[in-house]
Amino acid sequence: MIKGSLVALVTPMTSMGDVDWAMLDRLVELHIEAGTSAIVAVGTTGESATLDNDEHLAVISRVVRRAGGRIHVMAGTGANATSEAVALTRAAAHAGADSCLSVVPYYNKPTQEGLYQHFSAIAVAADIDLYLYNVPGRTVCDMLPQTVVRLAEDVPNIVGLKDATGNLERARWLLGHLPEEFVLYSGDDATALDFILLGGQGSISVTANVAPALMADMCRHALQGNVNEARIINEKLMPLHQNLFVESNPIPVKWAMAELDMIQTGIRLPLTTLSNQYHDLVRQALAHAGLI
């Protein structure tokens, strides 16, 4: 079971929008050195929606090769077509990913039965651990807790959930009804600490891109029950948790990373670079965390 800070890794790009492979290698090394528990490659923060299929799988393969078994690699392989999600998940398993993260299908708004059959089909088709990802604010479809429990009980290789609802009452309910071995990760940085203190196993974090060591330390303290230490770190990070979402993710986090000379400024349309009106807000959050 992977516990702690799992980074929802950005896909670094040049100013022309090409994948920056050398920088991707550097980011993998950075997270290994900082104590990050796992790398989530090509999730929402990794601009999965703007990478073509070959690029998507090439980024996963590159991260797997660079990681070299030193850190868990979770591949983002979700899609709104079940057949595409199956193909991506199989390919990620073949590339050597340790697990896959599959988002609730977006735009087509399936029923709860459709969600159950979608994720069951993916899990049955691929010999790899599968983590569900519920983020209704982006998919406009909410996988209800009862559906998560049904999948957890019925499908052996569906082993966890990234819950990005920010709803702690839902997290409490899930923790009380899911099998003990099923893993729950927060997908909402602002509530991640409280999520872990309720019994969650960690956070799949955007903030970890800019503050990997701080997020790793915060999650470690929370998991060990060192509440005061965890809250002190989280207070330093809270402006980042909030201000890295002033525009659609990953716009602010990529801008912040460029400010820290961690990556170049590249981002792909229809996403654009951070609006000028938010620059000082994000800089202030970086300063509050002691990063500038």
TrEMBL record:
Which Enzyme Commission numbers does its entry carry? 4.3.3.7
Question: Which SMART domains does the UniProt entry name for this protein?
Answer: DHDPS
Cell location: Cytoplasm
Tell me if NADP is a UniProt keyword of this record.
no
Q: Where is this site: Part of a proton relay during catalysis?
A: 44, 107
Per its record, the protein catalyses: L-aspartate 4-semialdehyde + pyruvate = (2S,4S)-4-hydroxy-2,3,4,5-tetrahydrodipicolinate + H2O + H(+)
Q: State which pathway it belongs to.
A: Amino-acid biosynthesis; L-lysine biosynthesis via DAP pathway; (S)-tetrahydrodipicolinate from L-aspartate: step 3/4
Q: Which residues form the active site?
A: 133, 162
- UniProt xrefs under Pfam families: DHDPS
CDD domains linked: DHDPS
Q: Where does pyruvate bind?
A: 45, 204
Keywords for this entry?
Answer: Amino-acid biosynthesis, Cytoplasm, Diaminopimelate biosynthesis, Lyase, Lysine biosynthesis, Schiff base
Name the InterPro entries on file.
Aldolase_TIM, DapA, DapA-like, Schiff_base-form_aldolases_AS, Schiff_base-form_aldolases_CS
Q: Self-association or partners: how does it assemble?
A: Homotetramer; dimer of dimers.
- Which protein family is it in? Belongs to the DapA family.
| NCBIfam families registered for this protein in UniProt | dapA
Briefly state the protein's biological role. Answer: Catalyzes the condensation of (S)-aspartate-beta-semialdehyde [(S)-ASA] and pyruvate to 4-hydroxy-tetrahydrodipicolinate (HTPA).
Stated name of the protein = 4-hydroxy-tetrahydrodipicolinate synthase
Q: Which organism is it from?
A: Pokkaliibacter plantistimulans
- According to the entry, what is the taxonomic lineage of the organism? Bacteria, Pseudomonadati, Pseudomonadota, Gammaproteobacteria, Oceanospirillales
